[in-house]
Design brief:
Layout (H helix, E strand, L loop, with lengths): L15 E2 L2 E2 L17 H9 L2 E5 L5 H12 L7 H13 L10 E11 L2 E11 L3 E9 L9 H15 L4 E7 L3 H9 L3 E7 L7 E8 L3 H8 L4 E4 L5 H15 L8 H12 L12 E6 L5 E9 L4 E9 L2 H15 L5 E6 L3 H10 L2 E7 L7 E8 L6 E4 L2 H9 L4 E5 L2 H4 L6 E6 L2 E13 L2 H5 L14 H11 L2 H4 L3 E8 L1
Parallel strand pairs: 6-7, 13-14, 17-19
Antiparallel strand pairs: 1-2, 3-4, 4-5, 5-6, 7-9, 8-9, 10-11, 11-12, 12-13, 14-16, 15-16, 18-21, 19-20, 20-21
Helix pairs in contact: 2-3, 7-8, 9-10
């Protein structure tokens, strides 16, 4: 499970982690201008001599004063005593002799041209997680040389070398700069607590899964498509029914053949658009072989919420694919999605990262031994279209090397328009692009005779390699839908 118990961890870069990731204490106007930085800041980063090292005994006064001055704006308690406790633990070898769940305390100092400029403290937990407590940049160095990002990278690298599976912290919600900083760095919001460390301050809990290369590769190996159920495809319907009966019965009572038939009957009434007919919309996630690996059924309700039930997948990739793909398709039917589900830890991470909110816990609501959870997502007309991208290509688009994305002509792809903004999402993050051009072809081979393959898969070695890649992802019948090239520009 995810260990998100907010411990006394402050990370202030004007930022704060764990007991707090607070960023801009008002008394000292700690505004971390890196949050709105541009190319000029990158130039600064290249001209200074920046060094990150372990803290030594001579650093104590700097650390103590920095923590006291920065943390008091958002956190109660004796910050000087806190500084002494964690500093002393670091100096004697990093062993935490007082911690209950923690076993290690490590502190690093950042210098700019030999001048002490900031610090970060990390706490090793017995659950294979690390917290930051705190991260602080001195006021005179705020917004210079990317010091906050450098220290955060130091903490992440340190945690990875110690086989940690997660990095976490908390940040005062009122500290908007700090909160946005961590979210941009790939941290996920887990929840919040009012007046947690200081009356009137709301503490937000954040975490970042530390996926390794092998984990990312395993997630990217699966090719998943999300499509409306083809009610004339008996094999597809039979697979859907089998999946629902096999996977749902342990969490939901009443899942029978009759229940499955009622679901399909509701789907046959979808053209009525009459909520009193209890019509259903059904989406399936399929792999590259056409096998059903996920199902989502949606029922529009009075007042325009949409209940998504069932919602089931055989693996994390299919689960995320349904979460990402169906909201935009359901915009015409309502303003909000909600699901009743009994999620795994990985599925909770996906829900939180994609922006779903936990509304309620329903003990014995559907099964006497299960606590069912309700999660929801606001989907109004302003909801941006999302597109799943494998991490390999996500990084190439982000770097600017890849500007062309190739898909087959599903209805959802054909509805994309020039000028539309799309949020690209992978298993670890997302960013926005703008569609600057759209071109269509009959086959992948025809497309590759016109389009530069280097802009489609820059890390490939030849046009034939790119063609074979598409053949692996898409079956012949999917290629017959037509080939669509989307040209992206960074927003």
């Amino acid at each position: 499970m995810v260990d998100l118990k907010p411990d006394k961890c402050n990370i202030t870069i004007t930022l704060r982690w764990s007991q707090s990731c607070s960023l801009t204490p008002k008394p000292l106007d700690y505004t971390y201008s890196e949050f709105s930085s541009g190319p000029a800041k990158e130039d600064k980063m290249s001209t200074a001599n920046v060094l990150i090292r372990e803290a030594s005994e001579s650093d104590f006064e700097f650390v103590e004063n920095l923590m006291q001055n920065v943390l008091e704006a958002y956190y109660g308690g004796d910050h000087r005593a806190h500084a002494k406790r964690i500093f002393d633990a670091h100096i004697v070898g990093g062993v935490d002799r007082l911690g209950f769940f923690s076993f290690e305390q490590r502190m690093f100092i950042v210098e700019v041209d030999g001048e002490v400029a900031g610090m970060i403290h990390v706490v090793g937990k017995r659950q294979s997680t690390y917290k930051i407590s705190p991260l602080i940049i001195a006021p005179e160095f705020q917004g210079k040389h990317g010091l906050g990002s450098r220290l955060l990278t130091q903490a992440e690298n340190y945690a990875r070398t110690h086989q940690a599976r997660q990095l976490y912290c908390t940040v005062a919600e009122q500290n908007i700069n700090a909160l946005q900083f961590f979210l941009r760095k790939g941290f996920v919001k887990a929840g919040s607590s009012e007046s947690h460390y200081k009356t009137g301050m709301t503490e937000t809990m954040l975490y970042k899964p530390l996926y390794g290369a092998s984990k990312i590769m395993s997630l990217d190996q699966l090719h998943v498509s999300v499509l409306p159920l083809d009610e004339n495809n008996e094999d597809m319907k039979e697979q859907v029914g089998r999946l629902l009966l096999e996977k749902l019965q342990s969490s939901f009572e009443g899942i029978t053949d009759d229940w499955v038939r009622a679901l399909f009957d509701g789907y046959s009434r979808r053209e009525t658009h009459d909520i009193n007919t209890k019509y259903k919309l059904i989406y399936v996630a399929t792999d590259s072989m056409g096998r059903i690996i996920g199902v989502a059924g949606a029922t529009p309700k009075k007042g325009s919420p949409i209940k998504v039930m069932p919602f089931i997948a055989t693996n994390q990739v299919a689960f995320e694919a349904l979460l990402i793909d169906i909201p935009h398709q359901l915009i015409p039917y309502g303003h909000k999605l909600y699901i009743h589900i009994n999620p795994t830890a990985d599925e909770v991470m996906s829900l939180q990262r994609i922006g779903w909110k936990l509304d309620a816990a329903l003990p014995a609501g559907y099964h006497p031994n299960v606590v069912t959870q309700q999660w929801s997502l606001d989907i109004r007309e302003t909801t941006m279209r999302t597109m799943r991208i494998k991490k390999r290509f996500y990084d190439l688009i982000k770097s600017g090397e890849k500007t062309l994305e190739v898909r087959v002509g599903y209805d959802t792809i054909n509805r994309i328009q020039i000028g539309e903004r799309i949020r690209l999402m992978t298993h670890t993050g997302g960013f926005d692009v703008k569609v600057s051009a759209i071109r269509r072809y009959n086959t992948f081979a025809e497309m590759l005779n016109v389009e530069p393959w280097e802009k489609i898969a820059p890390d490939s070695k030849s046009k034939n390699e790119v063609l074979n890649l598409f053949k692996q992802i898409y079956s012949t019948n999917k290629e017959q839908l037509g080939v669509v090239v989307l040209e992206f520009a960074r927003v």
